[in-house]
Structures are given as C-alpha cells and as structure tokens.
Design a protein that fits this description.
Blueprint: H1 10-23, E1 27-31, H2 36-52, E2 57-62, H3 71-79, E3 84-90, E4 94-96, E5 105-107, E6 127-128, E7 151-154, H4 163-172, E8 185-187, H5 195-204, H6 212-218, H7 238-247, H8 249-258, H9 262-268, H10 283-293, H11 297-315, H12 338-345, H13 363-366
Parallel strand pairs: 1-2, 1-7, 2-3, 3-6, 7-8
Antiparallel strand pairs: 4-5
C-alpha cells in the first residue's frame, strides 16, 4: 500500500493520543527505563499533560542495580523535575546472568549480600515491593484509578524495533493493548516513530537524556544495538559489555566482582557461552562431556532428559544413527543433532527456548522463597 501524506507529524500525533486519555480523566503512569524511547514517551506525556492541566506526570521505574554509568544519575535528574512524580520501585527481582552456568540468575540489590557488595544503593525515598514480575509495576493497588476510569501504563515501544513488535501491534489492534490480568492496558504513543524521530526530538527540543548513549557512540557501538538494560540478559549483550569494559573499566571491575563469569564472557566472547570440542572429539562426545559430565547438576538433568526425548523421536522413524552436525529434518524440533543439542543445552536452556517440553527453571529452584514467574517469563 502506498504511503499517504497526512499533513501532520509524529510528535503532534503522539501528543494528541495522550491528550485524549488525559482529557477523559484516566489515570496514566509512564513506565520509565531511562532508555531513549521511554524518555521520549515521557516527554510526550508531559506535553499532553500541560495541554490538559494534568501535571505532574506519574512515572514508575524499577531498580535493576547493574546498569551503565549515568543511567541512575539521569533517573534521579528526571525524578527531581517539577513536571514528574516518580515512584522508584525496588523488588529484589531475579535477573538473568548468562555468564554463570551454576545459576542463571542474580538478585537485584540482593538482601542476602552485604550492601557494600551491591553495585550501588537505591535512593532513600525508593519504595520496596514484594512483587517480582514486571507486570506488577503498574498495579491498581499501587495506582488506583478514579471511579469509573481506567489505569493505563505508557511504554516506549516502537513498531520498527523488530518484526516481533510490529506483529504485536497488529494483533493488539492498535497502540492501546487489551487490559492485562490486573485490568491495566498498555499505551504506546510513539509506536509509529522511527529511530531517527526519537533522536530528532531529543536534539531539537534539547531534552536531557541518558549520557551513556554518548559513550556507546564514541566507542563505536552502532545505534541500532545500543540498549539500556541489564547487560547480562543474553548473548547479544556481549558487544555492549565489551564496549563497557573499555569505556568504564572501574565499573566493569565492579560488575565482574558482583557477577561471576562476566570477565570470561567479555574476554572470550560467544566462545565462553558455548561448548568447545577437544581435538578428535565428536559432537556426541562433546555433548556428554560439557553438558552432562562436567556440567552443574541442573544442566546435566535437563541435557539428559532432552537427549532421551530426541533419541526416541529419531528411533521412531529412522534406522540411521542420530546426526552428528546437521539436524534431522524428520524429528520434531530444531535441535535434532549432537552439535545442536550441545549448543542448546550447554547453559541448560533455563527458559525452555529450545527444548520447549522442559519446564522453566524458576528462581525458586536456586533460592528458597524466591518465587516463580507464574507463567512464561516476561523479560
């Protein structure tokens, strides 16, 4: 379908979307991560609230403890603005650490550690909550809407970030999602913005922003992969961590002390997160050595179970041996070879992304009382 010029711009459209909700008297809370998109979404809400007399704008942010330098300094500058009323949440939630095979989690501002072991301390006015799931950040119990009105959570999601987010926009029927189990709908006022639109607004309106973006740019990180978030969540964060080791060496040393395995990950890259064959070793031998014999017990159990499932599947339709490298196209699943099993199970596949028949490894497994995700983790 050809594009049509509408005689307006994305900023005016985004402000209008939020102004309509503010005019209706709805309660609106901005989810703030200090990233560029949530920063711009917040500024859009401030402009809309100024038009409708609804200042200050309510903002909620969850402390993640380990973030690039200047992230929390920017958050505190934002909280100090007259136009903002911020709720800074501390949940001690588990966060993924892909660099540690013993446990795929660390706990934010871990209450079982002495405070001097933390990367930093939250502000004195932070709110401590028992809920660990991110859906609970904007909760009606915490932000009760006026009678007859609804509670909305504003998020800085854009459709051009990924195909998954574009499809998600189509399936939800627009920039306002269906209410979640708590009755809260997400609003995505900048869903149709591009990467350039975001930085154009920041530049032309001379907005304050997270200065770690400047450091990432100076150190050669392409804008498309610049992310503000815990840098141990997945293997794709390696580029950012390797950059951080050069840009903020003291901060990086702290991270390595706080999270075992991080330094090896940065030093050896993806090779630290995948099995390595010895000379003349087959992939079958490598799988048994790295994923069972030398692996932590929880990984060995999951690898053994996955191996049994795939060998049985293969035996039911083939008389040939289980493939060494290339996956068997007749087996259900996409890891039907010794090499693919080794790659998938080396870190235990804790969230069952490859071996979907396995249960998630819940935080409760590694720490009693840590709770469960209550379904698929929403990272």
């Amino acid at each position: 379908m050809p594009r049509r010029m509408l005689g307006t711009n994305v900023l005016d459209e985004a402000v209008d979307r939020m102004a309509r909700l503010y005019s209706e008297g709805q309660r609106i809370v901005v989810s703030f991560s200090t990233g560029k998109d949530s920063t711009v979404a917040l500024e859009v809400c401030i402009l809309a609230a100024m038009q409708t007399g609804r200042l200050p704008v309510e903002v909620v942010m969850r402390d993640e403890e380990i973030m690039f330098p200047d992230t929390y300094e920017f958050a505190e500058r934002t909280a100090a603005r007259d136009e903002v009323e911020m709720t800074w949440l501390v949940a001690n939630q588990p966060v993924i650490n892909v660099f540690n095979r013993q446990s795929p989690y660390f706990w934010v501002l871990d209450p079982e550690l002495p405070e001097e072991k933390w990367m930093r301390k939250p502000p004195s006015w932070a709110t401590y909550i028992p809920e660990k799931h991110i859906d609970a950040m904007t909760h009606p119990d915490r932000f009760p809407p006026p009678e007859g009105k609804n509670l909305y959570a504003v998020i800085g999601l854009r459709a051009d970030e990924s195909r998954h987010r574009l499809y998600g926009l189509f399936t939800s029927g627009g920039y306002i999602t269906k209410p979640n189990k708590y009755g809260v709908a997400n609003v995505r006022p900048i869903y149709d913005w591009t990467h350039r639109d975001v930085w154009k607004m920041i530049s032309e309106l001379k907005l304050d922003y997270n200065r770690s973006y400047d450091v990432m740019l100076r150190n050669g990180l392409p804008p498309k992969i610049m992310r503000i978030g815990p840098p141990t969540m997945n293997i794709h964060a390696l580029d950012s961590l390797q950059m951080a080791a050069r840009a903020w060496p003291k901060w990086f040393d702290q991270v390595c002390e706080r999270l075992p395995g991080t330094r090896n990950g940065v030093k050896f890259g993806q090779h630290a997160l995948m099995p390595s064959r010895k000379l003349h070793e087959t992939w079958e031998e490598c799988f048994h050595r790295t994923c069972i014999d030398e692996a932590p017990d929880w990984i060995a159990e999951r690898a053994t179970r996955t191996k049994e499932v795939y060998l049985n599947r293969h035996k039911n339709h083939a008389s040939t041996p289980f493939p060494e490298v290339h996956a068997c196209m007749s087996c259900t699943g996409n890891i039907a070879s010794w090499k693919k099993l080794a790659m998938a199970l080396y870190n235990g596949d804790p969230f069952s992304l490859k071996a979907s028949f396995l249960k998630y490894i819940e935080p409760e497994f590694f720490r009693e009382g840590a709770g469960t995700w209550g379904g698929k983790p929403s990272f």
